[in-house]
Design brief:
Elements (H helix, E strand, L loop, with lengths): L1 E4 L5 E4 L9 E4 L3 E4 H7 L8 E5 L2 E4 L11 E2 L5 E6 L4 E6 L10 E2 L3 H7 L32 H7 L4 H14 L3 E4 L2 E5 L8 E4 L6 H27 L11 H13 L6 H15 L12 H13 L5 H9 L5 H14 L1
Parallel strand pairs: 7-10
Antiparallel strand pairs: 1-2, 3-9, 4-6, 5-6, 8-9, 11-12, 12-13
Helix pairs in contact: 4-5, 7-8, 7-9, 7-10, 8-9
């Protein structure tokens, strides 16, 4: 891809090579910010580069120079995206074949333009009246991000470009970070004191990436086994042993979002997070919508240590059996 002038739209992104529909393009690169932080950042202006991960967490690309910042809007663009709340990540992929020189665009969604009060180019929809819009993750194949040995085995049977992209996504999940367009820092394991290696993602040997990913997967499995053993010895038999991906999401949430008024508010807030992100794991009979999650988080945020945590916990029992909610909150209370 290359960034170049795009007429009245300012700058845009263009394909340098031909590619097929379904090809993984890139991630949206920005600074993770909470809803409160966005309000503090944009007191006198509207944000232009916020990408919502969940109702309380966004990626802000205002200060980013990554290619993904320059994707322009089109109602029927050639890009689509998936949002992975657990990885705090947005993945772009092609929805149609493209040739060199074609501009890469995606649908920003009507709510973006209605909020800005602008009728966009390349869009024939009616923006004269505000209407209810949804924030559902768009349909489409989510690229494989192997987090288990079985998923790694499946990935290694794919084509070389898919193998490389999948290994890089796996390593990013386990703590890898992109330093610039040509280098990424990959972990050589997990846990405290882990070593890292800086590599060029497009040229590093597949064997090196695979070895690092398999080490991360193996060590995570060992940590999960140890946690399960410790849980068996715990007196609190009703608490769940949360999988690594859920614990990882909680840790990211806690590092990036302000705490609630009390530890119990924190525990219930984490329960809302996990029930929304992993509804099947926690036995949800009526999964939370984004609007419901926003309302529950708002009630916790606005409650100054009163009965908000009790009320929200009771509301969660509408979406999953009481026993499941009790086990979930017992588990998040330990993490809070």
């Amino acid at each position: 891809m290359r960034v170049a002038a795009a007429g009245d739209k300012g700058m845009g992104v263009y394909a340098e090579t031909a590619a097929k529909a379904g090809t993984f393009v890139c991630q949206y690169v920005g600074t993770p910010v909470t809803l409160l932080q966005t309000a503090q950042r944009y007191v006198d202006s509207d944000p232009d580069y916020l990408f919502q991960i969940n109702p309380d967490l966004y990626l802000d690309a205002m200060d980013s120079n990554h290619t993904s910042r320059f994707f322009n809007h089109a109602e029927h663009g050639n890009l689509n995206f998936t949002i992975d709340a657990a990885r705090v990540c947005v993945d772009f992929y092609l929805t149609q074949d493209v040739e060199p020189g074609v501009e890469l665009t995606f649908d920003y969604g009507m709510s973006y333009w209605l909020g800005a009060g602008i009728t966009p180019l390349n869009d024939c929809r009616n923006y004269t009246e505000k209407r209810k819009t949804t924030h559902a993750t768009p349909p489409g194949p989510r690229p494989l991000t192997p987090l288990t040995a079985q998923e790694l085995d499946k990935l290694m049977g794919m084509d070389e470009p898919d193998i490389r992209a999948g290994l890089l996504r796996s390593l990013e999940f386990f703590g890898g970070s992109r330093l610039d367009e040509d280098s990424i820092r990959i972990p050589l394991g997990v846990g405290e004191g882990v070593a890292y290696k800086v590599v060029e993602p497009s040229t590093e040997a597949i064997s090196t990436l695979e070895a690092a990913a398999r080490t991360c997967v193996r060590q995570v499995a060992e940590l999960q086994s140890a946690a399960a053993t410790a849980a068996d010895d715990d007196d609190d038999d009703d608490a769940l042993t949360l999988p690594f991906d859920q614990v990882s999401l909680v840790e990211r949430w806690q590092s990036r979002c302000p705490r609630f008024a009390t530890a119990e508010h924190d525990a219930v807030g984490l329960g809302v997070l996990l029930l929304w992100t992993f509804p099947d794991f926690h036995g949800a009979t009526d999964p939370l919508t984004r609007e419901q999650w926003e309302a529950l988080l708002r009630e916790l945020r606005e409650d100054e240590g009163g009965n908000g945590a009790t009320r929200v916990r009771a509301l969660l029992e509408v979406h999953a059996p009481k026993e499941a909610i009790n086990a979930l909150i017992d588990s998040t209370r330990r993490l809070a």
